[in-house]
UniProtKB/TrEMBL annotation:
Its main location: membrane. The chain crosses the membrane at residues 27-50, 57-76, 96-115, 144-165. The keyword Calcium does not apply. This is Prepilin type IV endopeptidase peptidase domain-containing protein.
Length: 168
Protein backbone atom coordinates (compact mmCIF):
# COMPACT_ATOMS: atom_id res chain seq x y z
CA UNK A 1 0.00 0.00 0.00
CA UNK A 2 2.75 2.46 0.95
CA UNK A 3 4.67 1.85 -2.27
CA UNK A 4 1.55 2.32 -4.38
CA UNK A 5 0.65 5.56 -2.60
CA UNK A 6 4.15 7.00 -2.76
CA UNK A 7 5.23 5.91 -6.23
CA UNK A 8 1.93 6.01 -8.13
CA UNK A 9 -0.85 7.95 -6.41
CA UNK A 10 1.17 10.94 -5.20
CA UNK A 11 2.96 11.54 -8.54
CA UNK A 12 -0.30 11.04 -10.46
CA UNK A 13 -2.12 13.59 -8.29
CA UNK A 14 0.73 16.08 -8.69
CA UNK A 15 0.66 15.66 -12.49
CA UNK A 16 -3.13 16.02 -12.47
CA UNK A 17 -2.88 19.21 -10.39
CA UNK A 18 -0.36 20.72 -12.80
CA UNK A 19 -2.38 19.76 -15.88
CA UNK A 20 -5.63 20.97 -14.36
CA UNK A 21 -4.14 24.32 -13.41
CA UNK A 22 -2.61 24.74 -16.87
CA UNK A 23 -5.81 23.87 -18.73
CA UNK A 24 -8.48 25.35 -16.46
CA UNK A 25 -6.63 27.64 -14.00
CA UNK A 26 -8.20 25.64 -11.17
CA UNK A 27 -7.05 22.88 -8.85
CA UNK A 28 -10.06 20.76 -7.89
CA UNK A 29 -10.93 20.45 -4.21
CA UNK A 30 -11.36 16.71 -4.71
CA UNK A 31 -7.71 16.46 -5.74
CA UNK A 32 -6.52 18.09 -2.52
CA UNK A 33 -8.96 15.91 -0.57
CA UNK A 34 -7.56 12.83 -2.31
CA UNK A 35 -4.04 13.84 -1.21
CA UNK A 36 -5.20 14.20 2.40
CA UNK A 37 -7.21 10.95 2.43
CA UNK A 38 -4.42 8.98 0.78
CA UNK A 39 -1.93 10.36 3.28
CA UNK A 40 -4.23 9.31 6.13
CA UNK A 41 -4.45 5.79 4.72
CA UNK A 42 -0.70 5.67 4.25
CA UNK A 43 -0.05 6.89 7.78
CA UNK A 44 -2.49 4.38 9.26
CA UNK A 45 -1.30 1.44 7.18
CA UNK A 46 2.44 1.98 7.27
CA UNK A 47 3.02 2.10 10.99
CA UNK A 48 4.03 5.75 11.27
CA UNK A 49 4.27 6.73 14.91
CA UNK A 50 2.16 9.48 16.42
CA UNK A 51 5.12 11.90 16.64
CA UNK A 52 5.77 11.48 12.89
CA UNK A 53 2.09 11.88 12.03
CA UNK A 54 1.85 14.97 14.24
CA UNK A 55 4.89 16.47 12.50
CA UNK A 56 3.32 15.90 9.08
CA UNK A 57 0.00 17.34 10.26
CA UNK A 58 1.83 20.33 11.69
CA UNK A 59 3.64 20.97 8.41
CA UNK A 60 0.34 20.82 6.54
CA UNK A 61 -1.37 23.08 9.09
CA UNK A 62 1.35 25.71 9.14
CA UNK A 63 1.47 25.74 5.36
CA UNK A 64 -2.32 26.06 5.18
CA UNK A 65 -2.27 29.07 7.51
CA UNK A 66 0.56 30.77 5.60
CA UNK A 67 -0.88 30.10 2.15
CA UNK A 68 -4.38 31.18 3.10
CA UNK A 69 -2.89 34.45 4.34
CA UNK A 70 -1.32 34.83 0.89
CA UNK A 71 -4.68 33.96 -0.67
CA UNK A 72 -6.45 36.55 1.51
CA UNK A 73 -4.10 39.23 0.15
CA UNK A 74 -4.74 38.07 -3.42
CA UNK A 75 -1.19 36.84 -3.96
CA UNK A 76 -2.06 33.22 -4.80
CA UNK A 77 -5.20 31.29 -5.65
CA UNK A 78 -7.19 29.21 -3.20
CA UNK A 79 -6.40 26.01 -5.07
CA UNK A 80 -2.69 26.80 -4.85
CA UNK A 81 -3.01 27.32 -1.10
CA UNK A 82 -4.78 23.99 -0.62
CA UNK A 83 -2.37 22.12 -2.89
CA UNK A 84 0.67 23.50 -1.06
CA UNK A 85 -0.79 22.48 2.30
CA UNK A 86 -1.79 19.00 1.14
CA UNK A 87 1.70 18.53 -0.31
CA UNK A 88 3.34 19.76 2.90
CA UNK A 89 1.34 17.09 4.72
CA UNK A 90 3.20 14.45 2.69
CA UNK A 91 6.64 16.06 3.05
CA UNK A 92 6.60 17.02 6.73
CA UNK A 93 8.71 19.68 8.37
CA UNK A 94 12.01 18.00 7.42
CA UNK A 95 11.69 18.99 3.77
CA UNK A 96 9.13 21.79 3.92
CA UNK A 97 11.74 24.52 3.45
CA UNK A 98 13.21 22.65 0.47
CA UNK A 99 9.75 22.34 -1.07
CA UNK A 100 8.94 26.03 -0.59
CA UNK A 101 12.33 27.09 -1.98
CA UNK A 102 12.04 24.88 -5.08
CA UNK A 103 8.39 25.94 -5.59
CA UNK A 104 9.39 29.61 -5.34
CA UNK A 105 12.21 29.20 -7.85
CA UNK A 106 10.04 27.17 -10.24
CA UNK A 107 7.21 29.67 -9.83
CA UNK A 108 9.53 32.54 -10.62
CA UNK A 109 10.79 30.85 -13.77
CA UNK A 110 7.20 29.97 -14.76
CA UNK A 111 6.01 33.54 -14.17
CA UNK A 112 8.86 35.16 -16.07
CA UNK A 113 8.46 32.71 -18.95
CA UNK A 114 4.73 33.26 -19.13
CA UNK A 115 5.10 37.04 -19.00
CA UNK A 116 7.66 36.86 -21.79
CA UNK A 117 5.43 34.56 -23.84
CA UNK A 118 2.53 36.97 -23.46
CA UNK A 119 4.53 39.71 -25.19
CA UNK A 120 4.40 37.71 -28.44
CA UNK A 121 1.32 36.97 -30.53
CA UNK A 122 -0.27 33.59 -29.99
CA UNK A 123 0.52 31.27 -32.95
CA UNK A 124 -2.45 30.74 -35.25
CA UNK A 125 -2.78 27.03 -34.56
CA UNK A 126 -3.06 27.70 -30.82
CA UNK A 127 -5.85 30.24 -31.23
CA UNK A 128 -8.34 27.35 -31.45
CA UNK A 129 -7.44 26.19 -27.94
CA UNK A 130 -9.53 27.99 -25.31
CA UNK A 131 -7.01 27.25 -22.57
CA UNK A 132 -4.17 28.76 -24.63
CA UNK A 133 -6.20 31.91 -25.29
CA UNK A 134 -6.98 32.21 -21.59
CA UNK A 135 -3.38 31.58 -20.55
CA UNK A 136 -2.10 34.10 -23.10
CA UNK A 137 -4.41 36.83 -21.77
CA UNK A 138 -2.37 39.36 -19.78
CA UNK A 139 -5.20 39.75 -17.27
CA UNK A 140 -4.98 36.04 -16.40
CA UNK A 141 -2.89 34.95 -13.46
CA UNK A 142 -0.14 32.36 -13.42
CA UNK A 143 -1.01 28.65 -13.02
CA UNK A 144 1.23 28.33 -9.97
CA UNK A 145 0.00 24.78 -9.36
CA UNK A 146 2.48 23.72 -12.04
CA UNK A 147 5.38 25.01 -9.95
CA UNK A 148 3.96 23.52 -6.75
CA UNK A 149 3.52 20.10 -8.34
CA UNK A 150 6.96 20.16 -9.96
CA UNK A 151 8.58 21.13 -6.66
CA UNK A 152 6.77 18.30 -4.88
CA UNK A 153 8.07 15.77 -7.38
CA UNK A 154 11.62 17.12 -7.08
CA UNK A 155 11.66 17.15 -3.28
CA UNK A 156 9.60 14.07 -2.42
CA UNK A 157 12.29 11.38 -2.96
CA UNK A 158 14.41 13.00 -0.24
CA UNK A 159 11.54 13.15 2.30
CA UNK A 160 11.56 10.66 5.15
CA UNK A 161 8.15 9.26 4.22
CA UNK A 162 9.55 7.95 0.94
CA UNK A 163 11.89 5.62 2.84
CA UNK A 164 8.84 3.41 3.28
CA UNK A 165 8.84 2.73 -0.45
CA UNK A 166 12.49 3.28 -1.24
CA UNK A 167 14.53 1.49 1.44
CA UNK A 168 18.24 2.23 1.41
Amino acid sequence: MATLALLVVFPFLMAYAAASDLLTMTIPNRLCAALVVTFAGLAAGSGLGWPEVASHLGAGGVTLLATFALFAFGLIGGGDAKLAAATALWLGFDHLADYLLVASAAGGVLTLGLLRLRTHPLPGFASAWPWALHLHDRRTGVPYGIALAAAALVVCPAASLWRLALPA
